[in-house]
Amino acid sequence: MKAVYCPYCGGRTKRNGRTSSGSQRWRCTACGASTTVRYDDTATRLDEFLGWLLSKDSQAMMPGGGRSFRRRTAEFWEVWPMPVPDGELHRVLYVDGIWVARDLVVLICCSGERVVSWYMARSENSRAWSALMSPIPAPEVVVTDGGSGFARAVRETWPRTRVQRCTFHAFSQVKRYTTTRPKLQAGRELYLIGKGCDIIARDWVCDGGSIDIVARDGRELVFASVEIGDGSDASLAISSPEKRSITASLMLAFAAR
What we know:
Blueprint: E1 13-18, E2 24-28, E3 34-36, H1 42-53, H2 67-73, E4 92-101, E5 104-110, E6 115-121, H3 126-133, E7 141-144, H4 150-157, E8 162-165, H5 167-178, H6 185-194, E9 198-206, E10 209-217, E11 220-228, H7 241-255
Parallel strand pairs: 4-7, 7-8
Antiparallel strand pairs: 1-2, 2-3, 4-5, 5-6, 9-10, 10-11
Helix pairs in contact: 3-4, 5-6
């Protein structure tokens, strides 16, 4: 054990019984002053907390059902870990917010390879987004889901950065209102655009019938609401071989035009 010195005169001390709470009392051999020593075990308790946090064990599996552990490590639940950005310049960055509790969201910024930085906040407001982005060099493009507060933050923090809306989140918003089976033509078009299709024709008519919407999805053609000659809607239920044959003929006719 390390020697204990008097906090008043700096002289050496010796053991002198215990206090009423059970702590070791030390008495200075030079001035006679009594003192107690409180050792800082924060690092030890933090190691214990991180060891549990990064393990698969629950607190109930610990000795005493985890009560002693919670008492020793209670202060560490209030610590918000903050990363240190390395200053690397990225061409494209992706940002998103992950809600881990009712009043706790983790704002994450990552490249295509790794997490660049993160920030913990109580809501996705412009101040929180600015706190995340300020230490990071502005990229050329940032991809976002369009969460609340981000537009203002990017204008103030990265004014020259182009903003790309995440296509998955954009389509999810479209599908929320159109459903997967939109009934109106406008809804069908919006649904196809949300899926990344390009509308190339509307109300295309030939001798065998008509096609309301034709879209292109990469190298494939998408046909919506095909009407055959008798006015029935083949997109709702192509039940008979005859209707399937007519529908296929309409598609081939459009592709060969």
